[in-house]
Design a protein that fits this description.
heterodimer, A: Phosphorylase Kinase, domain 1, Transferase(Phosphotransferase), domain 1, 2 domains, five-stranded antiparallel β-sheet, 9 helices, 14 strands, B: mainly alpha, 56% helix, binds adenosine-5'-triphosphate, binds magnesium ion, repressor (chain B)
Chain lengths: 370, 402
């Protein structure tokens, strides 16, 4: 056994897999622990399959970025090791996610709780953007919550860097309800502002306890946005009618946010409106958002340990639920994530609809402008 | 990704010292007649990757990443126990994905097979099914420890020379500036900017390309390679050199900064405004950078020894983006002006025509490689299968690991 093998074997022995807790597009996730300390961890085993198509692009992105990013509000990759024909990522174990919390009707959110989650999200995101990294899939389901209440940005399968400006990128990113209008109009040169729009949608969802802009298709998404925020004028967003996929989707009047968010403070609504600015250049950035009056006004953000948590029994299901995914909504070049595996039971608050799955791109078809 | 270099996997795990490099070649050294052949391998395989990368329409950055992956892989593996051609294909395949220029595995296999089957390589055994490449990809990523973010000198080069405004690129209404300030500039000098003529800048760029033909990318942080390339370009570029000679400063007066590891936040406040002078004071410019000039001198000498070696490497079609040609013309000038301030003699001085040994060609190097692998194989009693050695060895390893 040479030195390289020895090092890997040592790393492998350091971690113990206990039981399967979930499955994503390209990985099976186990609960495990560090052998010496019994610290609880998640072990994400990347499926290499029969070496048919090479490593999934999402897997490559996830390891690439998680190996570099270390921040309190970004999920921590503790170690990597290989076993037989698998790559294993050792991640900190996170019991729940913001989506589960939002959907748990037994929980009551105080404005201070929402402020705490927003601050943690923005701190993690500011760190990503400062390091020239776009997340491109922010949504409550990807904001995981540690047992001490800390929020961690996770799922870097769509992340990419933007340090070299002027690179054409795909606009088929971000789960539809959280996708900004410039991407829906086919913009291929974009930047950190796309993530900020998603943060705005999450902020609204925390207050409403239901998705703010739940479009049913890409076209309907634009209509849903404009219905809520008014159709943008040339003055609101100069040049947007020249974007590649621009289509007029009807004229809707601007209604004050106050009409929907009746209980929100002035600072809250001001910050929300700055996240949801149409013109990407004028949308607030993560750093300025953290310095917004909202975060300095009373009430102070709740301490993470005091934040609402789902009751133990409503925590993540241990095994996958099987189900069929409706792929009808997938646009060209887009395929649904895990065709016959539904990651989690996702019911809307009224208990009817399944939420659309996060969509994954087939990037091999987008090689020219990813 | 442009994370802080000092916090990166590149800095923390993949900058190694000469001792480690030597250790990593110990197995190969047992099977090679002349250790120098291994240095020729470094040039040869970098050229193979560059040419294959061009066939795949890779940007320079993707090619550079593939070469760095290749070098990192061979810190942990030996040439005589692996098949460098399948490793090269895997490096290009992973680099494409890591740099957001993915190539479909089918195309990758087809391109690599075709390219390697041609002269001078004549590799007939390159596997035609995807699974072998996918398998190699897995071993590669595992040996890279999933560290897929590679820093390169190009960005430093561009920002020092303010060429970042290569914004002849089209923009759309949705495009925003980065939305954040530029990250900290770890090479120091807050507002220091080098005003280089375009051809001198091009020369520096080509020198950076050439550094990938050695282990320099494993030994030194990329921003130091960029600064050294600029330094050499200033010294070698005719008109710029004349300007330099007119300036009264002597190179010996260059102050040395204590540590290369300070961030620009500190240094920007201490930086002087020399770069703003109408006729630029190059010496002062380099002095202002928050880096160790003796280290730059050392790297410069290593680059010169690379060119010295490379002069004896003969490959039919030379690559156009190399600074080789310029270099030989000025090598002596370099020795006098650039190499003087560290007191260490450069290898160029010892290279008299009389003692110039024989050169190396791709064909010759492939024969060397074949002989090494045959000898290694006959030493390993149990290794009799006809499959590529890389895969065999890797399988044994993973089986041993359980
Ligand atoms: N760090 C973690 N701690 C605890 N459980 C986790 C962790 N990461 C993932 N899981 C569980 O494993 C499941 C699969 O996660 P994974 O990130 O592979 O896929 P996903 O994000 O759900 O789906 P997709 O791959 O389509 O994005 C999750 O739904 C979750 O239940
Ligand atoms: Mg996910």
């Amino acid at each position: 056994m040479d030195a390289v093998e020895k090092a890997n074997t040592a790393r492998q022995k350091r971690w113990v897999k206990d039981r399967k807790v979930g499955e994503g597009t390209y990985a099976v996730v186990y609960q495990g622990r560090e052998a010496s300390t019994s610290r609880k961890v998640a072990i994400k085993k990347i499926k290499v399959g029969q070496f048919k198509d090479g490593l999934d692009m999402s897997a490559i992105r996830e390891v690439k970025y998680l190996r570099e990013l270390h921040h309190q509000n970004v999920i921590e990759l503790l170690d990597v090791f290989s076993s037989k024909t698998n790559l294993n990522l050792v991640l900190e174990f996170l019991d729940s996610d913001l989506e589960m919390i939002i959907q748990d009707r037994s929980l009551v959110f105080l404005p201070a709780d929402i402020k705490a989650w927003m601050a943690m999200t923005l701190r993690g995101l500011e760190f990503c953007h400062r390091n020239f990294m776009l997340h491109r899939d922010l949504k409550p389901n990807n904001l995981l919550i540690a047992s001490d209440g800390q929020l961690k940005i996770a799922d870097f399968g769509l992340a990419r860097d933007f340090a070299d400006p002027g690179h054409k990128m795909t606009c088929q990113v971000i789960t539809r309800w959280y996708r900004p209008p410039e991407l829906l109009f086919g913009c291929r040169y974009y930047s950190s502002a796309v993530d900020i729009w998603s943060v705005g949608c999450i902020f609204a969802e925390l207050m409403l306890r239901t998705p703010y802009l739940p479009g049913e298709s890409d076209m309907d998404q634009l209509k849903t946005i404009f219905r809520a925020l008014g159709t943008p004028t040339e003055e609101d967003w100069p040049g947007h009618t020249k974007l590649p996929d621009y289509v007029p989707v009807g004229q809707f009047p601007r209604t004050p946010l106050r009409d929907l968010f009746t209980a929100a403070s002035g600072d809250t609504l001001n910050l929300l409106s700055r996240f949801l600015v149409y013109e990407p250049r004028r949308r607030i950035n993560a750093r300025d958002a953290l310095n917004h009056a909202y975060f300095f006004a009373l009430p102070h953000p709740s301490h993470p340990s005091k934040l609402p948590k789902p009751a133990a029994q409503t925590s993540r299901p241990l095994e996958e639920l099987d189900g069929n995914v409706d792929m009808a909504g997938a646009g060209p070049g887009v395929k649904a994530a895990a065709p016959n595996k539904l990651k989690r039971k996702l019911t809307s608050p009224d208990g009817t609809d399944l939420r659309p799955l996060a969509r994954r791109l087939d990037f091999t078809q987008h090689a020219k402008h990813s | 990704m442009a994370t802080d270099f000092w916090a990166s996997s590149h800095y923390k795990r993949w900058i190694v010292d000469r001792g480690t490099l030597k250790e990593s070649r110990s197995d190969d050294l047992q099977y090679v007649d002349d250790p120098e052949y291994l240095d020729f391998f470094a040039i040869f395989f970098a050229n193979v990757i560059t040419k294959l990368g061009k066939k795949l329409n890779f940007r320079q950055r993707v090619i550079a990443t593939a070469i760095v992956f290749f070098r990192r892989f061979y810190i942990k593996n030996s040439y005589c126990e692996t098949d460098p051609f399948i490793v090269i294909a895997a490096c290009c395949y992973v680099a494409g994905k890591a740099e957001e220029s993915p190539v479909h595995i089918k195309n990758m296999v087809a391109e690599a097979r075709l390219f390697f089957s041609q002269q001078p390589y004549g590799v007939k055994y390159f596997p035609s099914d995807n699974s072998k490449l996918a398998e190699m990809e897995f071993y590669l990523v595992a040996d890279l420890e999933c560290d897929l973010t590679v820093f390169h000198p190009y960005r430093t080069l561009l920002s020092i020379c303010k060429k970042e405004s290569s914004n002849d690129l089209q923009t759309e209404a949705g495009e925003v500036g980065v939305g954040v300030d530029d990250g900290p500039r770890y090479w120091g000098s807050g507002d220091g900017q080098l005003e280089l003529p375009d051809d001198a800048f091009q020369l520096a760029w080509s020198i950076v390309n050439d550094t990938y033909r050695s282990d320099l990318c494993l030994l030194y942080p990329p921003h130091l390679l960029a600064i050294t390339a600029l330094y050499l370009a200033v010294v070698l570029h005719g008109p710029t050199r004349e300007l330099l000679q007119q300036q009264s400063h002597s190179v010996e007066a260059t102050p040395v900064h204590s540590s290369p590891r300070r961030s620009s936040r500190q240094s920007s406040s201490t930086s002087l405004g020399h770069a703003k002078k109408p006729s630029q004071d190059f010496v002062a410019f380099f002095a202002d950078l928050n880096i160790s000039m003796p280290l730059v001198a050392t790297i410069a000498q290593e680059i010169i020894s690379l060119y010295t070696l490379w002069e004896r490497y003969l490959e039919d079609s030379d690559l156009v983006d190399s600074a080789r040609g310029t270099f030989y013309g000025h090598a002596s000038a370099q020795t006098q002006s650039g190499g003087s301030h560290s007191g260490v003699s450069t290898p160029v001085e010892s290279l008299d025509d009389a003692q110039k040994p024989h050169g190396a060609t791709p064909t010759f190097l492939l024969q060397v490689l074949t002989r090494m692998r045959e000898n290694k194989l006959s030493d390993m009693a149990h290794a009799s299968s006809g499959r590529p050695v890389a895969v065999n060895k890797m399988l044994e390893r993973t089986q041993a690991a359980g």
